[in-house]
Structure formats: C-alpha cells, structure tokens
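Hi W., the phosphoenolpyruvate complex you wanted:
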Amino acid sequence: MCALQVNALASLDTLWSKRPLIISGPCSAETAVQVKETALALKSTGKVDILRAGIWKPRTKPGMFEGVGKKGLPWLQEARAITGLPIMVEVATAKQVEEALAHQMDVLWIGARTTVNPFSVQEVADALKGVSVPVFIKNPINPDLELWSGAVERIERAGISQIGLIHRGFSTFAQTQYRNAPLWHLAIEMKLRFPHLLFINDPSHICGRRDLLAEVMQRAIDLDVDGLMIESHCHPDQAWSDAAQQVTPDALSTMLHRLVWRNDDSASVEYHSALDQLRQQINQLDEEVLQLLARRMQIAEQIALYKKENNITILQAGRWHEIMERTLARAEQLKLGREFITQYLDALHMESIQHQQKILDQGLPGQTPADAG
Ligand code: PEP
Ligand code: MN
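Structure:
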C-alpha cells in the first residue's frame, strides 16, 4: 500500500507535464464502496491520470447533500493505494486544507463558489504557505476575470508553484442550454493572461447534462486546453449530487476515445510555408483595415466641424439606425456573424462620437490651450 502511494506522489511532477491531463471521479465521495468501485473502473480505462472527488460540497441551497466530510478522505487514500492514481479534493477553508494535507491528498482544487470570495481564497492561501502541493483554481461563478486572476495571485503569493486553472462555465442571467454558460472568450482571455499555468476544461459543470459533454470537450480541445476534468460515477443516475451530468467510466472512455486531439504546432515544412503566406496576407489586411478606420475617423471629424458650425448634436439616432441596418444586412450576405458586427459597429460608433466630441469641445471655456489645439 505504501509503495504505491510513494509511486503516485513521485510521478506528480511528470504528470504535471502530461498532455492531455485527464482528471475524473465522482462529483461527491458517497461511500467507501462507491469511491473504490469508481476508482477501479476509471483506472481500468487506462485514460485517467488523477482521481477527483468532492468531500466537502459547497451547495447553493441548504438541505442538499453537503458531502461526507473528512471521513471520506481515507476512502480516497484507499483508492490511491489500490489504483496508484493521485487523488484530488476541493478545499474551501483553512481547516479543510489542513485535513486534506493531513491525509496526504496529492492535488487540491478551489471551487467556483470559493474563488468568488477573496476572504475565503486568502484563508486557503494562508493555510497553504510553506506547503508544496499542486492547486487548481476554478473560475468564479460570475463572469469576472479579475476575481479569477486575484485568486491566482493569492495562491501564487502563498508560494504554490504548480497552479492550474479550471474553466467550469459561468452563471449568467441569460438562459442557455448549458448549466453554466461557457463564455469561451473569457476562457481564452484568462489563458492568454496566464500562459504559464495549466488550463483545464470542466465540461461537466458547463453542461449540467451528459448528452452535451462530447461537443463541449471537443470545443475545449480545439482551443488548446491542457486537459479535462469530467465527473464520473459507476451508477450516475443514483449519484447524490450532480446526477444528470455524471457518466460511467465506460462512457467516459468511449467519449475520450472519440475526441480529436490537436497539436499546437507541426514539423511539416509545407504547413509552415503555407501558413506564413496566409499570415502575411492577414497582416496586410489588418494594416489596411486600420488605415481605413483612421480615414473614417478623419471624415467623422470633418462632419463634426459642420455640426459645430450649425450647432447640431453629435448623436443622430436616425442616421445611426440606417448605418446599422444597412451594414448588418450586408454583413449577413458576406457571412459575418451578426453579434460580431453589432459589437464592431457599437465600438465604431463610440469611437466616432469621441472624435467628434473633441472637435465640438475645442475652444469651449474650461479647455486648456493644449486641449483646444
Ligand atoms: C465540483 O467540481 O464538484 C464542484 C462543486 O464544482 P464547481 O465549483 O465548479 O461548482
Ligand atoms: Mn459536481
């Protein structure tokens, strides 16, 4: 038993650089038998690197199953002993960190309901000072990248060097087919902000239902994630939490097998030369678009001079609606996304208003000569 535990721990560094890194296990540890059965089935797929299970479950409403608590930690230790899989739990308080470490958990994660609260994240960070354990940080429930980044900084300052991010989707007012809207652009932004951190996608909490998992996993892979965290259970429909989104280890294995894993680069000379040429064209087009935008703003400024002379408001709603309608119709013919063009037009309009405002403000009382010039 001990030898296997040492093996699991010794291989953690290697594991950190394994791609794709697959984390799986039940939403919650429920019984010793359930943890053992799931761990063995996951191990036999040969595709899982880390076993996860929630011991303390921060549930949105009271009265829901809130986890078995620390009595579940030895069940995970037992699962590690028989499978060799490193074990991972969620922690939300200093006491939970202490108990998890006292039971030699290999990896910890901070859940979405904790990332949202800087006091809680700081408490966890303080409890981690001087400890060497990998920590994953889920995105906060709400779509706020500063909170997510802040949590990363707090854990980094505690001296933790192996940090991973887990994208599990966001609560939004809009109703979508997902339990938590993926808001992929936020995931991309966070990945660009912290390129040195591991980036993992959690399709289970994004989807909330198992039939959507495969599509979301593939989407995440296409965006170059380092791995996936998927909830699994030997009897998913009987799970004590998140039943609808859990899959059997067999189903997980099939899904993983069907995914198309991509590389982030290629050794092919033809690939590089074709891409170089196309990218040069893109650079050239970007330059032209910028020049056109600058010219468009110069014309807006000329218009502003006339508006000023004739004492006319900058905002002309009728004219703007006309531009919107015409451009959106043309954009559709050109197969450009309606949302993209709407955002582009809004940004363009605001920039144009600012350029015109500068002209109207020139020479007004309160303007410094520099402003006026
Ligand atoms: C979980 O992973 O089981 C969990 C509670 O996730 P989240 O914090 O993303 O809701
Ligand atoms: Mn869950």
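The pocket of manganese (II) ion (ligand 2) is lined by residues 27, 231, 241-242 (CB under 6 Å).

W.
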